[in-house]
UniProtKB/TrEMBL annotation:
The keyword Methyltransferase applies. Pfam families: MTS, PrmC_N. The lineage of its organism: Bacteria, Pseudomonadati, Myxococcota, Polyangia, Polyangiales. Belongs to the protein N5-glutamine methyltransferase family. PrmC subfamily. The keyword Methyltransferase applies. It comes from the Bacteria. It catalyses: L-glutaminyl-[peptide chain release factor] + S-adenosyl-L-methionine = N(5)-methyl-L-glutaminyl-[peptide chain release factor] + S-adenosyl-L-homocysteine + H(+). One of its GO terms (biological process) is methylation. S-adenosyl-L-methionine binds at D160, N204. Its EC number is 2.1.1.297. This is Release factor glutamine methyltransferase.
Amino acid sequence: MKEEQGSKAAEGGGEAWTIRRMLTWSADDLKKRGSASPRLDAELLLGKVLGMSRVQMVIDPERPLQKSELSTYKALHQRRRAGEPVAYLLGVREFYGRTYRVDHRVLVPRPDTEILVEVGLARTRDVSLCARVLDLCTGSGCVAISLGKERPTTRVLGADLSGEALTVARENALRLGAVNVGFMRTDLFARVPRKVRFDLITANPPYISDEDMLGLPPDIREYEPRMALEGGPDGLDVARRIIAEAPRWLEVGGVLAMEVGAGQAPDTAALFERAGFGEIQRTRDLGGHERVVSGVRT
């Protein structure tokens, strides 16, 4: 979109930039640049600028954009066409029925990670009223907060090595009223009090292998925090540490549940077995990939 075109349209010269015309142009432009969801991207960004839902834009497609709206939208569109994730441009992302604030300090929460929450809840029903939960590599806090909100009488501790990520997590917890969720900066278990034992430990660790890092889409590889992505040569460097150390922090009968990358479940399950876990389960996501491995401390 040329700046002079937008200015002329806003001033009444030439064809006006209506919602319909802008969405059509934007979606086509983003498609040419490799967006996997160009129309949706355009609708979400334009909706943010106009303060309108996608339904409202469908109802009023001929509404013209004002000059200030054109300028604001153009800036967002340019950032998206350069590869910046839509969630960062919007500043929010939905996860497990709640809206989380996100930016470059944290990974963008993904629907597949909701399976980790579901497994954690399902495997701790018998202690649901008084459970202690530790969420490692908490990032935006979406898993820790989801567990805490679903089980208000539990006590949840979210842990992360990144102080910047924890700032985001604390803001999300405060905004969502997760009063039973706290956060700690630590390298996995390093600063967790040794006398504390947990009924559930969840983790969404970095699990992208060195080789797969090279093939990630630019909007992930170049914008999301690398320390939350890089899992070493086979993607399991951090997973190995968690699985090896977790038993000493779990109650007998406590559960460790961990998100893994596509194809990593068999090797991860073998690590669980070698660490002495029983009742090992591999749970698939909506795409059919084995996404979460979990086991019980015997």
